[in-house]
Amino acid sequence: MIIQAPYLVFLGDATDKLSIKMAQGVADWRAQLCIGEMSVPGCTVTTGLEQMDIPRAAKLGAKTFVLGFANSGGYLEAKWVPYIQEALKHGMDVVSGLHDKLTDVSDIRQMAQSLGRQLIDIRHPSEKFKTGTGKERVGKRLLTVGTDCSVGKMYTSLAIEKHLKAQGVSASIKATGQCGILIAGGGVAIDCVAADFISGAVEQLSPDADSTHWDIIEGQGSLSHPAFAGVSLGLLHGAQPDALVVCHAMSRYHMRGLPHQSLPTIIDTIRLNEQAARLTNPNAKVIGISVNTSSVSEEDGIAFCQALSQELNMPCVDPLRMGVATLLESLAL
Predict the structure, then answer these.
(1) CB 286 within 8 A of CB 273
(2) 111: which strand partners?
(3) Are 50 and 15 in contact (CB under 8 A)?
(4) How many CA atoms lie within 13 A of 332 on its CB side?
(5) How many CB atoms lie within 10 A of CB 88?
(6) What pLDDT, on the 0 to 100 scale, is given for residue 66?
């Protein structure tokens, strides 16, 4: 299905900035495709897009209503159904990245069918996948990995792709989550692929390419997160990465959602990911560290990155504050 622009992104009553990462991602990376955002009373966060309601957005030409929020479990709450129906009545398709499918809600499905509108559940792949083989593939691949989930793997991947293209290097983003898929316009929501087929799905997502081409593969989860390590491991094996970038968030003191689970060190994260990646690429290597320093001042963030770079003897940057040029210096481009 084709996602039609422009988008109206719906934040609901979100109060956690991380919970609107789908909306924030498309606002940050594809602002030209967005007409505005909509929230309801109780919402305390914003993407920075212009606030508007559904009728106004429709008058301005909005084609797609994007559910830009996520909750624990990714379920569709009944209170959002009337807003989805209103958007359908005003001529919009609806995009969701939740685990619950729009097409499984009869009231929404029936209205969309009667109005000839699309319901696009981008978290649910329609492709058929095979199990992975680990067979060597032509082309170059970089995978972002993390000390935790929600530490900036998608933003880092997008920043790297943008920089490479600006330098005239052939590169493509390979999205593996619902946010990345909305931004990139395609990909595979890897956390909805059956475990046995994760590595195979990534092999299909990043097939043979020109020997000088770089696929920048968006990472998911963390090998150190009890809930998401399985997805991270399948990605590592299927990506067959030549280069790895470790992503980390400052001011994070435990694994997200698990206050009893401490964060791994960056050194341990490097070791774990290189060891796992070398099953399918014996030469896989961490080339640098990407740090989300948004929790502190720019000055403190840069100082942290510089100190970490000296400690680890490898590039360390905040891609949004410092760019990614030094992160990629070791790559043979």
Answers:
(1) yes
(2) none
(3) no
(4) 5
(5) 22
(6) 97
Mean pLDDT of 268-293: 98
How far is 26 from 327, CA to CA, in rounded Å? 24
Count of H-run helices and E-run strands, the chain: 11, 13
Instruction: For strands 258-262 and 254-255, give the pairing.
Output: antiparallel
Q: What is the DSSP string of 42-107?
A: T-----SSPB--HHHHHHTT--EEEE----TT----GGGHHHHHHHHHTT-EEEE-SSS-GGG-HH
pLDDT at 249 over 70: yes
**Nearest Cα to Cα of residue 238 among 137, 161, 155:** 137
β partners of residue 12? 39
C-alpha separations of 99 from 32, 170, 193, 196 in Å: 27, 33, 12, 19
Closest CA to 159 of 69, 291, 275: 291
pLDDT at 332: 79
Q: Confidence band (pLDDT; 50, 70, 90) for 111?
A: very high
DSSP calls for 178-239: HHHHHHHS----GGGS-GGGHHHHHHHHS----TT-EEEEPP-S-TT-TTTHHHHHHHHHHH
Mean model confidence pLDDT for the chain: 95
pLDDT digits (tens, 9 = 90+) for 1-39: 688 999 999 999 999 988 998 999 999 999 999 999 999
